[in-house]
């Protein structure tokens, strides 16, 4: 049975991941060597150096961008005859900027994408089919990333992006400012549901005089992540990850989701959620409490520093799940109009497998943002590097912080290895016959998403309205086609 084979493959790759990572770090801190026996990984003196444009989301452009380019580009030129030009689009501008890029035909070579828009972007012809090219040009990269991850990013049997091998399973955490936890004596370690938070957050709101759960327009859409959304960018469509019957449903109508939407609406009315949430493009860096995907060690290495607090603490909110959708959380697609598709793949291979390059994108400019210790670990000079590390490449060739008592990437690998597989892991929905309906239904969902997921509107009546409009846009046709393909997959 196809599903059994897929699950067997996943478990095999999970068990081997540590070994793969151990033998795949090829760069050294003094200069490194590009991994690979593939054509194009070594530069010849007469080879033209080409410039690749990479557009991705993050906090903003680095203030020391020019100096950083002057440092990294000579190394890239030496290794693979490439220079890089990077555009970092702020979070609040990302959806609009991304749409302009895709719909206007603006030139780029590499574009960060994710499950929200990936399938529709493929449908629009944005990305190049790299199914065969990646094996020919970047075989080391292809071999390094688990086979199931390539399957997870396939659309109608073709690969249009390079998946980021990181926390490719999904674990959600409640993240707290430890000072707030101590001030209000919060037993945070034993709180793992929205319902368990209500009284705590109300107490904080009354004590602080402001909303403790500040969110942007995406709100708490994370509550739908227990449903496998099959990577089509429509959170209203899904199969619960542990439903052995694999029934395709309207996710918004399910009681486990509706009950949480009720809680969010209560929070909004009580001032626990910020009143302007539906219109906020980007949440502030400091928040007393929020939800984030990652791993517990990120509280020390990432979340706390980004919040600007002495210490952040976490508790797990949703169990660790691996699905096609979680793998699609971070992807990089090569433009179908790129002049240099082979060089794009050579660059992504070097970025993933050469620690010197990986550290430069993850930590910033050596000497200004970080330094290497004598044993090759990282000492951060500041936390001012604005690129989002998860958008770039694997975590497992990023050098360890010297201040850490543990290697946080080991925790990530363990989460991946022990993740609960979705009942649809390995299933790829062929959207050929339902592209129009999907596009129409995405438009319906997007129209109401911010008010629904921030709690700004009464959810049960709103869901009825959304469902009516979804059905008019062809939602039942999508459900029927999806169910037919799933039933065939599990035979």
Can you give keywords for this protein?
disordered N terminus; 5-stranded mixed beta sheet; 491 residues; alpha+beta; 4-stranded mixed beta sheet
Secondary structure blueprint with pairings:
Layout: H1 2-24, E1 50-58, H2 65-80, E2 82-90, H3 91-104, E3 110-113, H4 118-123, H5 133-137, H6 139-144, H7 147-152, E4 154-155, E5 158-159, E6 162-163, E7 170-177, H8 178-183, H9 198-208, E8 227-228, E9 237-240, E10 249-250, H10 255-269, E11 289-293, H11 298-307, E12 312-322, H12 324-327, E13 331-334, H13 341-353, H14 355-363, E14 370-372, E15 378-380, H15 408-418, E16 420-421, H16 435-453, H17 459-472, H18 475-489
Parallel strand pairs: 1-2, 1-3, 12-16
Antiparallel strand pairs: 3-13, 4-5, 6-13, 7-11, 7-12, 8-9, 9-10, 14-15
Write structural notes for this entry.
41% of the residues lie in helices and 15% in strands. It has 491 residues and is an alpha+beta fold. The relative contact order is 0.19. The model is unreliable at 1-44 (pLDDT under 50).
Strand order of the largest sheet: 2-1-3-13-6
Give the fraction of residues assigned to helices: 40-55%
Q: Strand share of the residues?
A: 5-15%
Structural class: alpha+beta
- Number of DSSP helical runs: 18
Low-pLDDT residue intervals, each spanning 5 or more residues: 1-44
Mean of the pLDDT scores? Answer: 89
* Radius of gyration based on Cα positions: 22 Å
Sheet with the most strands, sense and barrel status: 5 strands, mixed
Q: Give the total of beta strands.
A: 16
Distance between the termini: 6 Å
Shape: globular
